[in-house]
Amino acid sequence: MAEQLIITNKEDKEKTYKELIPQIRSLVECEYDLIANLANISAVLKEAFNFFWVGFYLVKEEQLVLGPFQGTLACTRINYGKGVCGTAWKNEETVIVDDVNSFPGHIACSSLSLSEIVVPVFFEGKVVAVLDVDSDKYSTFDNIDSQYLNEICNLIFKM
Ligand code: SME
């Protein structure tokens, strides 16, 4: 298993994502424990992009429950359809929010978080988790983040 992340280009986020994907693939290929893999994916994304907050919420019964993350203290439970995370779970699609203050029902874990992307993680056709990434700047996320974060989420249950 690679224990050191190699990023040669931090200026161009698409190039950074392209460098990360094979490294994340090799991490999850070497380990079958879900929590260990989610923890390392959070760490890799935090190190590569220095996002304000990056982590996973896991579907447990009728709620999303906080899982491995990197960043500040976060709310532990989110109801189905609530907030950005609950919306991505309910709609089974990626949600990009340029300004969290304009998203009805946004759950503010930190007032420093200004924009956000949430990507659902599927297993056997069902959403089993979401990846939540927060930025302390407005309009951080676009279709490039959506494309590559979805690719990363698709690696989680490939093994
Ligand atoms: N803002 C999220 C809640 C989770 S925190 O940002 C870590 C939401 O509205 O679902």
What average pLDDT do the residues reach? Answer: 95
Strand order of the largest sheet: 3-2-1-6-5-4
* Helicity range: 25-40%
Distance between the termini: 15 Å
The CATH class is Alpha Beta
Assembly form of the protein: single chain
Looking at CATH, which topology would you report?
Answer: Beta-Lactamase
Structural class: alpha+beta
Q: Find the CATH superfamily.
A: GAF domain
Bound small-molecule species: methionine sulfoxide
How many domains? Answer: 1
| Shape field | globular
SSE string, helices as H and strands as E: HHEEEHEEEH
- Number of strand elements: 6
The largest pleated sheet is described as: 6 strands, antiparallel
- Unreliable parts: none
CATH architecture: 2-Layer Sandwich
Taking Cα atoms only, what radius of gyration do you get, to the nearest Å? 15 Å
Please work out how many helical segments DSSP would assign.
4
Give the amount of beta strand, in percent: 25-35%
Describe it for me?
This protein has 159 residues and is of the alpha+beta class. The chain has one domain: Beta-Lactamase, CATH 3.30.450. 35% of the residues lie in helices and 26% in strands. The chain has helices at residues 13-29, 34-49, 83-91, 143-155, and strands at 53-60, 63-70, 77-79, 95-97, 115-123, 126-135. The mean pLDDT is 95. Bound molecules: methionine sulfoxide.
